[in-house]
Every structure is written in C-alpha cells, then in structure tokens.
Amino acid sequence: MEVFIPGFSGELYGQKMQVFFVKRLRDERVFDSAEALRIQVQEDVAAALSDHRLNPRCGQSPAFTLPGAYDRML
User: Fold this and answer.
1) Are 22 and 63 in contact (CB under 8 A)?
2) More reliable by pLDDT, 48 or 28
3) What is the 3-state secondary structure (H, E, C) of the chain?
4) Among 14, 6, 1, 3, residue whose Cα is nearest residue 42
5) Rounded to an integer, what distance in angstroms lies between the CA atom of residue 44 and that of residue 4?
6) Rounded to whole angstroms, how far apart are CA atoms 7 and 43?
7) Mean pLDDT in residue range 45-63
8) Which residues of 62-74 are buried (b: 16+ CB within 10 A; e: fewer)?
9) Angle formed at CA 23 by CA 7 and CA 62, multiple of 5 degrees
10) How many angstroms separate the Cα of 50 from the Cα of each of 16, 23, 42, 46, 55?
11) 32-45 mean pLDDT
C-alpha cells in the first residue's frame, strides 16, 4: 500500500501509522510515463482536498493522526 500525504516532507519508513479509508478516489491503473502519474496524483490530491471529510482546513477534526510524525489528515 502507498499513502500520499500532501505537504509532508520527511521520512516515515519504519514508523507505525494508521490509515483509515474514507473515500476511494479511483481504480488502480498503469501509467504510460512518470509525467502521467504526476498529473494523476495532482488530480487525486485536488479531488481529496475538495471533499470536506478529507480537508483538515474545513474546521472539522482530522480523521486520524500519525503520532509523533504528522498530526494532520491525509
């Protein structure tokens, strides 16, 4: 499983974390190029942040936290 955390830059390998599924963005697919993947990730992030359940700036509590690493949803 791969988890993308917008705005996070750091190292989480070896760290424990919980991931809660709130919404499926799209089916798995193969991309023709790294550029096509980059564009799709940008679109996925925009779609996730447009959903009030997934956006920490909407005044609601985050769905989960990563203790000691990243206390913000996604």
Assistant:
1) yes
2) 28
3) CCCCCCCCCCCCCCCCCCCCCCCCCCCCCCCCCHHHHHHHHHHHHHHHHHCCCCCHHHCCCCCCCECCCECCCC
4) 6
5) 10
6) 15
7) 66
8) eeeebeeebeebb
9) 50
10) 27, 12, 12, 6, 7
11) 91
Q: Rg of the chain's alpha carbons, rounded to an integer?
A: 13
Tokens of 15: 């760290």
Mean pLDDT of 32-41: 93
Task: Look at residue 32 in the predicted model and tell me its pLDDT.
Answer: 96
Task: Give me 66's structure tokens.
Answer: 């990563």
Q: What are phi and psi of 70, to 5 degrees?
A: -155, 100
**Contact predicate 6/45, CB 8 Å:** yes
